[in-house]
Design brief:
The protein is about 25% helix and about 30% strand. The protein is α+β, with helices and mostly antiparallel strands. It is rod-shaped and about 100 Å long.
């Protein structure tokens, strides 16, 4: 783009009966006079703008990566393999703190299990809720 085309395409606002220079406060009723003013008084600024527009854009990194598709995991996709084989069965559960809990395993929620008639080190404790993250091993005691 050359300087004349840039000035021609420049947006010059009209305020009342007068056109206003976009670079300074100069006003005139004649649009041609405003364009001549811009070309003579603001030539350096226009040259810089035209150079920016004519400058070739820097090429981005040629190596394009394929966009990664995010896998949306639905609640229905969640499989609790611990409870698939241990639900409603008497089991021995080894915890990460060294405790061994024995009792009837029931589903509680996604993160916890409930052990009914629980025994910890051969002492009856009744009902116990255990976070699944603390379970090291589950051993079924009955088939």
């Amino acid at each position: 783009m050359d300087i004349d085309k840039y000035i021609e395409n420049l947006e010059i606002k009209k305020e009342g009966f007068f056109y206003k220079c976009p670079f300074c406060d100069y006003t005139n009723a004649d649009l041609k006079v405003i364009k001549k003013h811009i070309k003579t008084k603001h030539l350096d600024e226009i040259k810089k703008e035209v150079e920016k527009m004519n400058k070739p854009k820097q090429k981005q990194n040629k190596q394009r990566r394929m966009p990664q598709r995010k896998q949306v995991k639905k609640e229905d996709d969640y499989k609790d393999y611990l409870l698939l084989f241990a639900h409603k069965k008497k089991c021995k559960i080894h915890l990460d703190n060294g405790m061994v809990v024995e009792g009837l395993v029931k589903a509680k929620d996604k993160y916890n299990i409930m052990v009914l008639d629980a025994k910890v080190d051969d002492k009856d404790v009744g009902r116990m809720i255990i976070q699944k993250g603390h379970i090291v091993a589950v051993i079924p005691l009955e088939e």
